[in-house]
Amino acid sequence: MASTLAKAAAGAPAVDHAARIAHVSKSFPTPNGQQLVLDDITLDVAPGEFVTLLGASGCGKSTLLNLVAGLDAPSAGSIETDGRPALMFQEHALFPWLTAGRNVELALRLRGVSKQDRRPEAERLLELVRLEGAYGKRVHELSGGMRQRVALARALAQDSRLLLMDEPFAALDAITRDVLHEELTRIWRETEVSVLFVTHNVREAVRLAERVVLLSSRPGRVAREWRVDIPQPRRIEDAAVAELSVEITEELRGEIRRHGQH
Q: How do beta strands 162-166 and 194-198 pair?
């Protein structure tokens, strides 16, 4: 069954999910036949929920995110989202010939925002990600963390109710990453956007999420889920974060060992 992107119409009843992934599988052709990457994934993301996806390298996390984004179609199953998701990658993917503000404005233009309203809205979004005064700065003038903030502002400019994030902080140093964890948590709580966040970092997953979903090694299946009941704001070094991270890491190691035995 092909993927379905269900966009909420004006005046339609509120949906009970930001994303609904039902029995999704994905295969890719290889010289030796079809390779199954994802197998019968069923997962809901509630409105306003923050969910992290964990798993060993190659387990299909990014593939699943691409399917939810509508960049590819599942081989089986269906995907419904509350409107079109916004996608943020590990690389900022900013246009270097544009300023920070113009990068954000591009998303606003594609969304249909009028020309006279674009700059004020771009400045508001840059302020939201704590980049006041950065509207006229070129990409090469920004640090790695600042570039990711602009990328986040551009994603938010799409006015989506679902934000898909594919290891957006993996290339940053530990201090910058920790600061952006705080900022993302603040923005998530202020905007009430739903987040599906891919990471291979267990502590990052626990630090950010309300729910952690572990995918098995290829083919990716939902192996286990954890509800994270640790109050926000959290720190990555908090004892409760560390304790749950140890439990999840042991489960992840078990998945990797089981995969290695095949």
A: parallel
Q: Is residue 258 part of a domain?
A: no
64/4 same-domain check: yes
Domain that includes residue 191, residue range: 1-85+166-253
Peptide bond into 47 cis (omega under 30): no
Query: Of 234, 229, 217, 236, which Cα lies nearest the Cα of 39?
Result: 217
Query: Can you tell me the distance from the alpha carbon of 239 to that of 206, in angstroms, rounded to the nearest whole number?
Result: 12
Structure tokens at 139: 């990409």
- 23-57 pLDDT per residue, tens: 999 999 988 888 999 999 999 999 999 999 998 88
Pairing of strands 33-45, 194-198: unpaired
Pairing between β-strand 211-215 and β-strand 222-227 as defined by DSSP bridges: antiparallel
pTM (predicted TM-score): 0.89
49 and 16 in a common domain? yes
Single out the residue of 53, 42, 37, 35 nearest to residue 79, CA to CA.
42
Return d(Cα 69, Cα 85) in angstroms, integer: 6
Maximal CA-CA distance, the chain: 60
Radius of gyration of the chain (CA): 19
